[in-house]
Design a protein that fits this description.
Number of helices: 28
Radius of gyration: 28 Å
Oligomer: single chain
Strand content: 5-15%
Distance between the termini: 57 Å
Number of domains: 3
Strand order of the largest sheet: 3-2-1-4-5-6-7
CATH architecture of the largest domain: Alpha Horseshoe
Shape: globular
CATH topology of the largest domain: Serine Threonine Protein Phosphatase 5, Tetratricopeptide repeat
Helix content: 40-55%
Structural class: alpha/beta
C-alpha cells in the first residue's frame, strides 16, 4: 500500500490536506479499512473536529478488515480514541477505552500512563499510582513516564521518590520546563525554598515571559530566610514595572467612569478562590455583611472551579462574573463596562491570579487585600488594605501601593461549622507539655528550627507536634528528624500528624497542642486563627513586613500582645517558656480564648464591613477629588 505510506508521510510532516485527500481516496476503494478510518479520525480531530474524529475511530474499531487486526494496532486505536474522548470531557469513556487497550495489550505503557494521568486528574490517586508504576516497570528510562509518576507522588506527599523521578525527567528537553515547575513545588513542600527558587529562575531563563512562574517566584521569595525585605520588594517592583511597560501600548485610552457622590459606590472583588479556600473563609463574612443600600458589589471569579462555598457567595445576590478563559484585554473591558469605582484583587501573586489584567487599569481605583501579604509591585494598583499591627508606621517604603490601615483588625474570622469544642489542656492529661506547628514546611527554615530547638531545650520533657503533607513519606520524615537533631531536638520528642484530612479532623489535632510556635519570616495566618479558635495561644516573632506580622495582627486583636508577640529571638524563646511554666494560667487562657475572640474585632462582621466601606470611600475621594463628576454615559470596551 504505497498510497497509505505516502499519506502517512504527509500526515507526519503536518501536510494535512494532502494526507486527507489520500485517506479519503483509500476509503472509496475500501470504506471499512480500519487503519485509514483510524488515521483519518486522528487527522479530523487535529483539524479541530473532535466529535467527527472520534466517530471515525469508533468506526475503525468495529470495522472488519480484510486481514486480521492485531491486538497491538487495536490497542493503539483505543488509546487515540481515549484522547479524543478526554478532549470532549468524556472521562468515563476515555478511561474505559484505555482499560480495553490494557486488557488487549497489558504491556502497552502508553495506555498505562494515559490511564494513570486521567485517574489522577479525577482524584483516584491510588489507582493512578498502580498504572503509572506498571508503566515505569515497562519503560524505566522514559522521561515522560518518570514525569507522570513523579508528579502524582508529589501530590500524595511522597516527596523523596517524586524528587528523584522529576530529576530523571529533566533529561527530556520537551519536559524540562514543566519538570522545573513541579520540581520547584516538590522542593518548596520540603521547605527547601532557596533550591525551589533556583528552579523557577532556571525556568524563566528558558522561557522569560511565563506569567505563572513569574508570580510563583515572587511569591516564594517572600518565604525566604536569606533574602532581605528590601530585595524582595525590589524584585516585585521590577516585575511590576516590566508588566506595566508591556501593557502600556494596549491600555485603553477611554476615560473611566467617575463617582458623582450621589449614586451607590460600585465595588468589585476578583479572586481565583471563591471556593473552599482560606481566602473565602475570611472573605465570606465581609461579603455577607456589606451594606447594599449604599454600595453595589460585583464578584469576578478568575476560574470556573466551584463548590458549596461558591454557591453561598453567589447567593448573596451580587453581580457575579466569570473571567475564566477571557484574555486579559477582554476581561479588563468587561470590568470597565461595569463602571466600577473600586476593584479589589484578593489574590496578589498566588496561584490563579490575574494581575496582568489589572495593568489595563479597568477601574479608577485598584486595591489589593487579603490573599497576598506583600506588595504586588504593580504600579497601577493604588492601595493595599491592612491594619496598624500588620503594617505599623514606617513600613510604607516596603510597598508599591499606598497603605490604607483599617482602624481595627484587617479581617473577620468565620470559624468552620465543623469546628470541635476546645479540649482540656493536654499537658495536664499527659503529664508533659506539647508545642506544635501545623504550618506548611515552606515556612519552616533553619532559623525557625533553631528557635524551636531553644524553646524545647529550656522546657525539659516537652514535645513538638508537626503536621505537613510530606510527613506521609517515611524517608522524608527521617531526613527531617535529622534536621531537628541538628537543633537539639531528639526524635523521641517529635510527633507527626496526618495531613489532607477533613477540617474537623484537622482542627481536632489542636487537642494535642498546648502552645503553637509560629514560623518566621512568613508567619501563620489562617493556621494562627485556627489555633486561637481551638484555645491554643501562638507565640510569634515579628519582622519588618506584613508576612511576619499576620499572626501579630490577630494576637493583638485578641489582646495577647504581652503574652505572645515577640520582637527578638530571645524574647520569642522567653515568652514560649513563660507560657509553658504556668500550666494553671495556660489552662485558664485555653478555656477563655474562644470567648475572647468572639468579643474581639475578629468576630464582628458588621463593624468590619463598615470599616472596609469607609476605606473604599476614602480611596475614591483621594483619587477623585473633584466635588462633582458625572459618570460617563459611554461604556468603554
Amino acid at each position: 500500500m504505497d498510497w497509505l505510506a505516502q499519506a502517512m508521510g504527509h500526515h507526519q510532516r503536518g501536510e494535512l490536506t494532502q494526507a486527507e485527500l489520500l485517506y479519503r481516496e483509500g476509503l472509496r476503494s475500501d470504506p471499512q479499512h480500519p487503519d485509514v478510518l483510524h488515521l483519518l479520525g486522528v487527522l479530523t480531530a487535529q483539524r479541530g473536529d473532535c466529535a467527527a474524529g472520534a466517530a471515525l475511530i469508533r468506526q475503525a474499531l468495529t470495522a472488519q478488515p480484510g486481514t486480521a487486526v492485531f491486538a497491538q494496532n487495536l490497542a493503539g486505536i483505543l488509546v487515540n480514541l481515549s484522547t479524543l474522548q478526554r478532549q470532549q470531557a468524556d472521562y468515563t469513556g476515555a478511561a474505559q477505552s484505555l482499560r480495553e487497550a490494557i486488557q488487549l495489550v497489558p504491556e502497552h505503557w502508553q495506555a498505562r500512563v494515559n490511564l494513570g494521568n486521567l485517574l489522577a486528574e479525577c482524584g483516584r490517586s491510588e489507582e493512578a499510582e498502580t498504572h503509572l508504576r506498571a508503566a515505569r516497570l515497562l519503560e524505566p528510562v522514559r522521561a515522560d513516564v518518570a514525569y507522570s509518576l513523579g508528579s502524582l507522588l508529589l501530590r500524595r506527599g511522597l516527596v523523596t521518590e517524586s524528587e528523584a523521578l522529576l530529576r530523571q525527567s529533566l533529561s527530556d528537553p520537551a519536559l524540562t520546563n514543566a519538570t522545573l515547575c513541579n520540581l520547584a513545588q516538590c522542593l518548596k513542600d520540603q521547605g527547601r525554598v532557596e533550591e525551589a527558587l533556583a528552579c523557577y529562575e532556571e525556568a524563566l531563563q528558558r522561557q522569560p515571559e511565563w506569567p505563572e512562574v513569574e508570580s510563583n517566584r515572587l511569591n516564594l521569595m517572600t518565604y525566604s530566610a536569606e533574602l532581605s525585605a528590601e530585595a524582595v520588594v525590589e524584585a516585585h517592583r521590577a516585575w511590576g514595572q516590566e508588566i506595566s511597560r508591556r501593557m502600556a501600548c494596549e491600555r485603553s485610552s477611554c476615560p473611566l467612569s467617575r463617582w458623582d457622590g450621589h449614586r451607590k459606590l460600585r465595588i468589585g472583588y476578583g479572586s481565583p478562590d471563591f471556593r473552599r479556600h482560606a481566602v473565602s473563609y475570611l472573605f465570606e463574612p465581609l461579603l455577607k455583611a456589606h451594606d447594599r443600600s449604599h454600595f453595589e458589589f460585583f464578584c469576578y471569579a478568575y476560574t470556573r472551579q466551584s463548590d458549596e462555598v461558591t454557591a453561598r457567595l453567589q447567593a448573596y445576590g451580587d453581580t457575579w462574573r466569570c473571567l475564566d478563559g477571557l484574555p486579559d484585554r477582554e476581561a479588563a473591558a468587561l470590568i470597565r463596562r461595569d463602571e466600577l469605582d473600586v476593584f479589589v484583587d484578593l489574590a496578589g501573586h498566588t496561584a490563579g491570579n490575574r494581575l496582568r489584567l489589572l495593568a489595563f487599569k479597568p477601574a479608577p481605583v485598584l486595591a489589593t487585600y487579603l490573599g497576598y501579604s506583600h506588595t504586588t509591585g504593580l504600579p497601577e494598583i493604588d492601595y493595599r488594605i491592612t491594619d496598624a499591627a500588620a503594617e505599623p508606621p514606617g513600613t510604607e517604603s516596603l510597598h508599591n501601593e499606598t497603605l490604607i490601615r483599617l482602624p481595627r483588625s484587617l479581617l473577620c474570622y468565620q470559624p468552620p461549622e465543623a469546628a470541635p469544642e476546645v479540649s482540656p489542656l493536654p499537658a495536664k492529661l499527659l503529664g508533659r507539655l506539647t508545642f506544635g506547628s501545623l504550618n506548611r514546611l515552606d515556612k519552616v527554615n533553619e532559623p525557625t528550627l533553631a528557635r524551636w530547638g531553644a524553646v524545647l531545650r529550656r522546657c525539659t520533657g516537652s514535645h513538638l507536634l508537626l503536621k505537613a503533607t510530606p510527613f506521609a513519606d517515611p524517608a522524608f520524615r527521617a531526613q527531617f528528624l535529622a534536621r531537628l537533631a541538628g537543633h537539639g531536638i531528639d526524635a523521641q520528642r517529635v510527633e507527626f500528624a496526618e495531613n489532607n484530612q477533613p477540617v474537623a479532623v484537622h482542627l481536632r489535632q489542636f487537642h494535642g497542642v498546648d502552645i503553637s510556635l509560629d514560623t518566621h519570616p512568613f508567619s501563620g495566618s489562617t493556621t494562627t486563627m485556627e489555633s486561637l479558635w481551638m484555645g491554643v495561644p501562638v507565640v510569634t516573632l515579628t519582622g519588618p513586613n506584613s508576612m511576619s506580622r499576620m499572626s501579630a495582627s490577630f494576637l493583638h486583636a485578641a489582646g495577647l500582645d504581652r503574652e505572645c508577640i515577640a520582637s527578638s529571638e530571645s524574647e520569642f524563646v522567653e515568652k514560649a517558656c513563660t507560657l509553658a511554666a504556668d500550666l494553671d494560667a495556660l489552662e485558664t487562657l485555653r478555656a477563655s480564648l474562644r470567648a475572647r475572640i468572639e468579643a474581639s474585632d475578629l468576630r464582628h462582621p458588621a463593624s468590619f464591613a463598615h470599616a472596609m466601606e469607609s476605606a473604599y470611600e476614602t480611596m475614591v475621594r483621594e483619587r477623585n477629588p473633584a466635588p462633582e463628576i458625572t459618570p460617563s454615559a459611554a461604556s468603554c470596551g
